[in-house]
Amino acid sequence: MLAYQKPCTIGDPVDDIDTPALVVCLNKLEENVGKMNTAMEKYPGVAVRPHVKTHKCPEVARMQMRAGAVGMCCQTLTEAEAMVGGGVADVFITNELVGKTKLRRLASLARQAAVSITVDDAANLQDISDVATEMGVTIHIAIEVNVGQDRCGVEPGEPAVSLAKLATSLPGVTFKGIHCYNGWNQHVRSTEERSNAVNKVVDLTRKTLEALKAAGLECPYVTGGGTGTFHFEAASKVFTEVQPGSYVFMDADYYKNLARDGNFDTEFLQSLFVLTTVQSAAASGERVVLDAGLKAVSLDSGVPMLSQRPDLTYHSGGDNHGIVTPGGDLPVGSKVWLIPGHCDPTVNLYDWIVGLRDGKVECVWPVSGRGPGN
Amino acid sequence: MLAYQKPCTIGDPVDDIDTPALVVCLNKLEENVGKMNTAMEKYPGVAVRPHVKTHKCPEVARMQMRAGAVGMCCQTLTEAEAMVGGGVADVFITNELVGKTKLRRLASLARQAAVSITVDDAANLQDISDVATEMGVTIHIAIEVNVGQDRCGVEPGEPAVSLAKLATSLPGVTFKGIHCYNGWNQHVRSTEERSNAVNKVVDLTRKTLEALKAAGLECPYVTGGGTGTFHFEAASKVFTEVQPGSYVFMDADYYKNLARDGNFDTEFLQSLFVLTTVQSAAASGERVVLDAGLKAVSLDSGVPMLSQRPDLTYHSGGDNHGIVTPGGDLPVGSKVWLIPGHCDPTVNLYDWIVGLRDGKVECVWPVSGRGPGN
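The joint structure predicted for all components is written out below.
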């Protein structure tokens, strides 16, 4: 067993949780999962397939499936294997997988669950077909279209048609539809600008659908959107599915969206925290030091906020420390609740999510989809 | 078993390693371990206690112990437990541990190995004494002195004396000496400026030693220094031990030191790489996309370099992707070797280190000290 030891046991009070610990408030998590369901009732015919890259945890996925999700999006094979192993019967890998080793793992998963994956390269698609045929399974293909993310994906229109045609012609695979996601749009701060940004995505998606139709190809599946934009994709009449992930936990970066406008974004609550302890107050007039550094909170989207202490600021103190200023009233041993800057990579630093209700530990969930990206 | 699956098996060629993977070149690692030994022969009476926060891996620690290390420095209890479990008989935790849960784990370790720890707070020292007494063990105390890091540690001189006196008076603990480390100095780029920075550390350390002596306290143990500065501390006639860590692996940030001056820094070789695969070349005229994002390489000290490809630049593409420009000659499926910006937090993202020799996998080591900081 490689995981570090569990930070607490069921029934423990907060004070007994070893820190740093990743803690989720179960009431708020459940409220978020329910609210997504309610939000999606406004868009009949549009499905929700939440993204597990946020939580990487089968227990949360099962909660989302019970609330009406049609399946789960995954970013890595490890996440997909963890979800299928945890009982999810339909997984969509929103990422290209390359090489025989990975593709055989993919085909093996397709024996146990409905498996779909994005593709943006003809030779890769041929490899998937070969492995699926060799292993006697069917893998469903969504062509990734570059709708402004400028990362993976073929250009809209004809390049997508060309790959879709190939998918319909090869054995072991089906052409499922198109994947049109722009992650950067999630973090455009104002609602109006975010809506305008999604309009561009919808235009490029529509252009691709028209090209597919002109080529005689049915495209019943169009997927994209995240926590920051899913309302717009869902209302577009073009998308058939949305993939929000962060809404279950939220984070300080999404909070900056909320702070800019008072609309439906505010429907989700901050449920995820990193519980830390003050380990040094030797210079407490100037600073105190927390036992949570960049191994405990990902700093890629900015430093964490201190929950309920807007007067205090977190500064990076290296791998193992967070420096809080001014911090004069926090003695050694006191607990500080951090709101991570970015939930997804922060969760990836942990093997365990502690579920808290009414001040007591109700569960300790393994983050079994964690890893560097395999 | 929570770890993601091993990326390869012993005997595999490079092409069969599943990516992203953390790979160490064993010849270079062994050369680095040997070179540290040779370097320290210049400083008789000064011991080397390498820091495991770099590798978190008992196999590497045992290699360092065989080469003459007197014990290992650890930053967390998880690291210390992994090292003692892996056969290291003397561990020094260069960090404050707070709270009964952690202190009981510490005392439990002291049943199996010689255990020392830094302290900068009287109440915390009292707690350590209480737990050690309760569990019938001895824990050795090094007072952490703030020599310019401005993080943990009491101020030089009298505040250190006061804690040292307390350590000598309490049961279950001994006063071992002082910990005088300034991490920021490791990354001062020019040798001359780095030497000047260490002179300030040495002055503050000497001031504290004089205050201890005036108070009638023997201080046979003075520890500090890292890969960037250990020569200066070792030559100071004040330090009795140095704590270099990164020298076993090196990284792109330390490489910036090397690039600035042609002196002894260059003695260590880059042995650690993140092996990645090109997963998308749909826009290969402009960019290609690697399967290694910020879950595979820590970006806190800048982006990774591409080994042997100084013409190419890595850009962050989020959690799971690295974007390489211009990248025109890298087809889908080709391997790219990244030199991490910062080795310590990059290693912390992995459960496995793949050891490579002559193009084949010789070992797959568990990173058993990994974790958020518990």
